[in-house]
């Protein structure tokens, strides 16, 4: 089956499944069914941009009161700023360009590209975790990229604060909770850690 968008044909297949990556917004746009959605950036126009604006408006990753961008088919500088905010909140490169990973994350309204982390892990994903826990006032040590005892304690404190399972494992539910801006409902939207 093919779906025509902006005079291009794209193969229609699911980009993510709610059981794998969190729940998609109700009535998500058809673009969420494409395996290769178009790349969008500042200056673009059309139905794809309108769908992008709707997904941003519906997102739990945009601060309350800042989701007034639903109408329109133009990728304006304001839309670009919202895209960057969404990307930052969901641990994507905040470049303002809507590529495959940004589409997948928007359609799931949750980070879908991150690996599960636990004590003993090392690397840039752990450093990113430490930085976000610091921003949320749960981590006070240096960002060394090592998931040691202090990172574990910070993760468990965060999980307890957000009514998540206190297992110290950073899986889909914990990543989702970490991606919500301060002031957004803490209720998790996924059934696993």
Structure in words:
The chain is mainly α. It has two domains: 11-108, Muramoyl-pentapeptide Carboxypeptidase, domain 1; 124-178, Muramoyl-pentapeptide Carboxypeptidase, domain 1 (Orthogonal Bundle), CATH 1.10.101. Helix content is 36%, strand content 4%. The protein is built from seven helices and two strands; from the N terminus they run ββααααααα. The protein has helices spanning 18-21, 47-58, 77-89, 100-108, 124-135, 149-161, 172-178, and strands spanning 2-5, 8-11. β1 (2-5) and β2 form a beta hairpin. The longest helix has 13 residues, at 77-89. The model is unreliable at 1-25 and 184-193 (pLDDT under 50).
Summarize the entry for a quick read.
The chain has 193 residues and is mostly helical. The chain has helices at residues 18-21, 47-58, 77-89, 100-108, 124-135, 149-161, 172-178; strands at residues 2-5, 8-11. 36% of the residues are buried.
Which residue ranges are poorly predicted, with pLDDT under 50 across at least 5 consecutive positions? 1-25, 184-193
Spatial order of the strands in the main sheet?
1-2
CATH class identity of the largest domain: Mainly Alpha
As for the number of domains, it is 2
| Structural category | mainly alpha
Average pLDDT confidence is 81
CA radius of gyration: 17 Å
Largest sheet: 2 strands, antiparallel
The run of helices and strands is: EEHHHHHHH
Helical content (DSSP H or I, runs of 4+): 25-40%
CATH topology of the largest domain: Muramoyl-pentapeptide Carboxypeptidase, domain 1
Shape: elongated
For the record, the CATH architecture of the largest domain stands as: Orthogonal Bundle
Q: Whole-Å distance between the termini?
A: 35 Å
How much strand?
under 5%
Number of DSSP strand runs: 2
> Which superfamily, in CATH terms, is the homologous superfamily of the largest domain?
PGBD-like superfamily/PGBD
Number of contiguous helices? 7
